[in-house]
Amino acid sequence: MKTLKGINRSVFWTLVVILYTGFIFHNSLTPAAESSRQSGGVLAAVLDAADRFGIEAGWITEHFIRKMAHYGEYTLLGIFLAIAVRQYALTPAVERLTECCLGFLIPFTDETIQLFVEGRSGQVSDVWLDMAGVLTGIAAAALMRWLAKRKRQGDRK
After folding, report:
1. Terminal-to-terminal C-alpha distance of the chain
2. Long-range contacts of 148-152 (CB under 8 A, 24+ apart)
3. How far apart are alpha carbons 90 and 98 in whole angstroms?
4. Among the four 39, 76, 139, 155, which has the fewest Cβ within 10 Å?
5. DSSP code of 7?
6. pTM score, two decimals?
7. CA 136, 142, 148 angle in degrees (round to 5)?
8. 4 Cβ contact partners less than 8 Å away, ≥ 6 residues apart
9. Which whole-number Å values give the CA distances from 75 to 3, 13, 103, 142, in the listed order?
10. Which strand (E) or helix (H) includes residue 86?
């Protein structure tokens, strides 16, 4: 059994996915006014940084920041999912099916949670955006595995 300094790797990575999913759901429980304040703060920092580097950033809006936050947090989830699922003795087809099912179920649940939060709404477009992030993360994890495998093969020669 694979271990990570004495901890079963499958348990460790499954807990990472569960805790990170909890973090995502916690963000969805934030009322709209507070969420907007947070996004506005990030927007101000991004615009300030762009200004310091002399970059035209008038096209960057709070809406853009919010969508990139969705995409980014779900890309990281996709990486975590891919690593976690790989720890189990599954066929590649079952691995992909598990990743895809969770890659839909988590965003769907996330947007459903927002239906019950003051000032928030669940958006089908956000489910699609979140799923695109998950798929990007899964693809990034696959690319990292492939590159690591190529490096190991090159080191043996």
Report:
1. 28
2. none
3. 10
4. 155
5. E
6. 0.86
7. 135
8. 12
9. 25, 16, 10, 13
10. helix 62-86
Q: Residue 93 corresponds to which tokens in the numbers above?
A: 């087809």
Positive/negative CA dihedral, 124, 127, 133, 136:
negative
Residue 31: phi and psi, rounded to 5, are -60, 155
Q: Can you tell me the distance from the alpha carbon of 15 to that of 4, in angstroms, rounded to the nearest whole number?
A: 13
Amino acid at 4: L
Q: How far, CA to CA in Å, does 45 sit from each of 38, 49, 65?
A: 11, 6, 11
Reading the block at residue 133, the tokens are 């992030």
| Token pair in block for residue 115 | 């239906």
The model's pLDDT over 49-100, given as tens digits with 9 standing for 90+, comes to: 999 999 999 899 999 999 999 999 999 999 999 999 999 999 999 999 999 9
Which residues 6+ apart lie within 8 Å of 106 measured at CB?
21, 24, 77, 130, 134
Cross-strand partners of 8:
3
Give the span between the Cα atoms of 109 and 127, in whole angstroms.
Answer: 9
Helix, strand and coil percent figures for the chain, each rounded to 5: 80, 5, 20
Angle, vertex CA 105, rays to CA 11 and CA 100, nearest 5: 75
Q: Quick one: DSSP state of residue 30?
A: S
